[in-house]
Amino acid sequence: MAPAGDREGYWGPTTSTLDWCEENYAVTWYIAEFWNTVSNLIMIIPPIFGAIQSVRDGLEKRYIASYLALTVVGMGSWCFHMTLKYEMQLLDELPMIYSCCIFVYCMFECFKMKNSVNYHLLFTLVLFSLIVTTVYLKVKEPIFQQVMYGMLVFTLVLRSVYIVTWVYPWLRGLGYTSLGLFLLGFLLWNIDNIFCESLRNFRKKVPPIIGVTTQFHAWWHILTGLGSYLHILFSLYTRTLYLRYRPKVKFLFGIWPVILFEPLRKH
Q1: In 3D, which of 45, 103, 56, 117 has the Cα closest to residue 235?
Q2: What's the CA gap between 100 and 81, in Å, rounded?
Q3: Which of 101, 108, 128, 159 has the most CB atoms around it within 10 Å of its CB?
Q4: What Enzyme Commission number does this protein have (predicted)?
């Protein structure tokens, strides 16, 4: 976490229960943590296009919700890191829980009839979200939110490993790339927390263009944003395979992955 003594800016004193390692208002007076803020663009813009494409393709609403939930997480994180206000922190952390619940629902409903609804699982995830929200608003302890989020991610990992091991082994590349990016982001997130003072001292001694590469919380956003986007592709690929579509991962401009598919023709 950030050492004490950061400057104040446009949004006034920090009221959030967390203040990350990036120096506050170092780039502009209007954004508390500049790099931690703009790095959320990867979670905001691509999923919007994914949601639009999902609507055009007539996909099940839960996949549209997955894309939009990731966008909401990115927007909430943008507001949090821009202001370092407690209310904005909640807009970041609680949607992380809600979006993961949507991801869990999608992963456990991959092998069901089209447009089916699992009301028992839906009720369980909604209840879980309500309990986490209520407890977190009461205790205001970030570790509680982090543990609950970790439980959901671990559930997704177990389900993904099951699918690539026993159902669709040829999806290992996509599934493990998503997981690998997330784990690398988690590693950098911990380095940023544990060695914050050393990182800040290093940034004082090097040119800004080098120092910005050590903003590891921003890298956490980039890597987990991409990892989460690829997870949605993995879930969608699994689902469309089961529905006897012919999905393919294509790269827009040779860089950004998207999923394209068409229904299997009847003869």
Answers
A1: 103
A2: 21
A3: 101
A4: 3.5.1.-
Helices (H) and strands (E) in the chain, counts: 10, 2
Q: Which two tokens stand for residue 10?
A: 């446009």
DSSP 29-90: TTBSSHHHHHTTHHHHHHHHHHHHHHHHTT--HHHHHHHHHHHHHHHHHHHHHHH--HHHHH
Q: What is the DSSP letter of 259?
A: E
Task: Please report, as a single letter, which amino acid is at residue 156.
Answer: L
User: How many residues would you count in the chain?
Assistant: 267
Is the whole-model pTM more than 0.90?
Answer: yes
Annotated binding residue 262: no
Q: Has 120 been labeled as part of a binding site?
A: no
Q: Is 19 annotated as a binding residue?
A: yes
Q: Is 33 marked as binding a ligand?
A: yes
Q: What are phi and psi of 10, to 5 degrees?
A: -55, -40
Answer yes or no: is 87 a known binding residue: no
The pLDDT tens digits of the residues spanning 173-196 come to 999 999 999 999 999 999 999 999
Q: Kindly provide the b/e burial profile for residues 226-252, where b requires at least 16 CB atoms within 10 angstroms of the residue's own CB.
A: bbbbbbbbbbbbbbbbebebebebeee
pLDDT in tens, 217-263: 999 999 999 999 999 999 999 999 999 888 888 888 777 888 887 65
Q: Is 93 a known ligand-binding residue?
A: no
pLDDT in tens, 6-65: 678 899 999 999 999 999 999 999 999 999 999 999 999 999 999 999 999 888 999 999
- 116 CB-near residues (< 8 Å, 6+ apart): 109
